[in-house]
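> call design_seq(struct)
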């Protein structure tokens, strides 16, 4: 019997070898790492996109909050920290910032804080990201007719440091809102004066001369004249032409002033203070070489009350001339006498001085103290004259104003007079940021009416009231100022009545604006 041996064939493998497993895991790890990187990048990009969208939203919110302020109230109490971006360094600062700030909260839209002053810098947290918001309000032109608004938002996220911004501009709504050149101003020392302070009258006419004098800052100009060096060609209205003059002496050094050449008005828009200008014409004709060129000059004047031909009180004005200058001021003066024809009422009155600058129409005023006393030569103390007299005045103090100087509430004043009738004039004069303002007081409706001229009796009380409304648009400088009350009788020529055209002034009443 033969024995045979059979070799079994190897059985199929039931799994992977160790090496295969290691290789497979390595591949999977590489793929997983790659996928994780892609996923992380995607998440970072998504988070960055979301953060940027949020930053843009915060920037838009910040600039819309600024745009809700009126032109005159739009400004800052401080500039944002750090260096301002190009073109945003000429910050518009408000004139009456609250101190401390907590007294009147600064406005910022992120937290919903309310108040009257825009916050220049604040933090805003959204989705665990802290955004730093910086807001700028700056003048965008040399004439200061337009304010440039900008909001910059910065933040850090997983992808680094980022910044977005929003910008816009706001133009002055009217001439009164344009800041432009520094406003004209009277010197505080010496203040405008009238001399002498006691004046003798002959039938209402000055018995001696009366001198008005004032010092102003140096951004004013008196009248000036020169000649045209070269012909101005034929031109159209509003067309810019080149003007060459023989001398620049006496002419303003800033643009905007009006000049007259052979009766035609031009407005200088470039080259002021030199002998070569660019000017905007108003006519159409050519002007020959050698033509007279003149600048009327800025006006400094004094205003006072006189009596008109019909016996009624009227406002009269005398223009002061530029007489000399010092290192820091210009000196202006004028003298009037009987020959000038003014007829004054007996009594006392305050004289108001004013400035009107030709280049931009800006003005200011000041009230001279003490009051000037006008008395007839036969009664040098006005003792026998039935002059209007104030026997009581009520004026609120302090008066609350906003950051731009606007009134927070109406201001009502009351005055009690004697030797005044219902036909006479009672006034209040006060100072605003744009100069002095005079308003007429009316009969107080809560009291007995003032008697008419025919039945009025000397020493009877008359009651008057006046209101400076919040909506009047007046803006006041902060601090103390005086309210000046005046009265003037209508002269009817009847010796039986108390009306002989006399004037009266009350001692100034101090009022604080804050």
């Amino acid at each position: 019997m033969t024995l045979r041996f059979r070799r079994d064939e190897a059985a199929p493998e039931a799994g992977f070898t160790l090496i295969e497993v290691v290789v497979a895991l390595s591949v999977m790890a590489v793929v997983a790492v790659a996928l994780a990187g892609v996923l992380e990048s995607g998440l970072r990009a998504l988070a960055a996109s979301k953060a940027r969208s949020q930053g843009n939203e915060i920037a838009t919110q910040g600039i819309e909050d600024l745009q809700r302020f009126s032109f005159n109230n739009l400004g800052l109490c401080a500039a944002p920290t750090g260096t301002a971006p190009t073109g945003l360094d000429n910050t518009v600062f408000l004139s009456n910032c609250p101190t401390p700030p907590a007294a009147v909260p600064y406005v910022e839209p992120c937290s919903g804080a309310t108040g009257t002053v825009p916050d220049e810098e604040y933090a805003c947290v959204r989705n665990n990201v802290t955004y730093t918001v910086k807001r700028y309000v700056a003048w965008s032109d040399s004439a200061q007719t337009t304010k440039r608004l900008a909001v910059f938002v910065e933040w850090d996220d997983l992808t680094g440091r980022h910044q977005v911004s929003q910008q816009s501009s706001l133009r002055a709504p009217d001439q009164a809102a344009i800041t432009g050149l520094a406003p004209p101003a009277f010197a505080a020392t010496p203040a405008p004066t009238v001399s002498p302070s006691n004046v003798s009258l002959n039938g209402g006419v000055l018995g001696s001369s009366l001198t008005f004098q004032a010092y102003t800052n140096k951004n004013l100009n008196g009248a000036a004249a020169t000649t045209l060096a070269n012909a101005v060609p034929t031109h159209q209205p509003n067309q810019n032409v080149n003007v060459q003059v023989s001398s620049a002496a006496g002419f303003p050094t800033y643009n905007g002033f009006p000049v007259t050449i052979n009766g035609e008005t031009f407005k200088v828009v470039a080259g002021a203070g030199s002998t070569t200008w660019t000017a905007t014409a108003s006519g159409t004709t050519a002007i020959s070489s050698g033509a007279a060129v003149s600048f009327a000059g800025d006006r400094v004047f004094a205003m006072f009350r006189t009596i008109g031909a019909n016996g009624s009180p009227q406002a009269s004005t005398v223009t002061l001339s530029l007489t000399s200058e010092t290192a820091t001021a210009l000196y202006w003066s004028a003298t009037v006498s009987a020959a000038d024809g003014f007829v004054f009422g007996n009594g006392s009155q305050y004289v108001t001085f004013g400035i009107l600058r030709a280049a931009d129409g800006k003005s200011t005023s000041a009230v001279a103290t003490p009051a000037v006393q006008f008395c007839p030569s036969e009664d040098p103390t006005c003792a026998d004259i039935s002059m209007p007299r104030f026997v009581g005045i009520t004026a609120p103090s302090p008066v609350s104003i906003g950051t731009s100087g606007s009134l927070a509430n109406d201001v009502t004043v009351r005055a009690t007079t004697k030797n005044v009738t219902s036909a006479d004039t009672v006034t209040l004069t006060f100072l605003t940021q744009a100069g002095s303002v005079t308003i007429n007081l009316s009969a107080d409706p809560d009291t007995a009416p003032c008697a008419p001229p025919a039945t009025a009796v000397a020493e009877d009380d008359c009651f008057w009231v006046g209101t400076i409304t919040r909506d009047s648009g007046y803006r006041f400088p902060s601090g103390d100022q005086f309210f000046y009350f005046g009265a003037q009788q209508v002269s009817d020529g009847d010796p039986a009545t108390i009306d002989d055209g006399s004037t009266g002034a009350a001692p100034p009443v101090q009022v604080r604006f804050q």
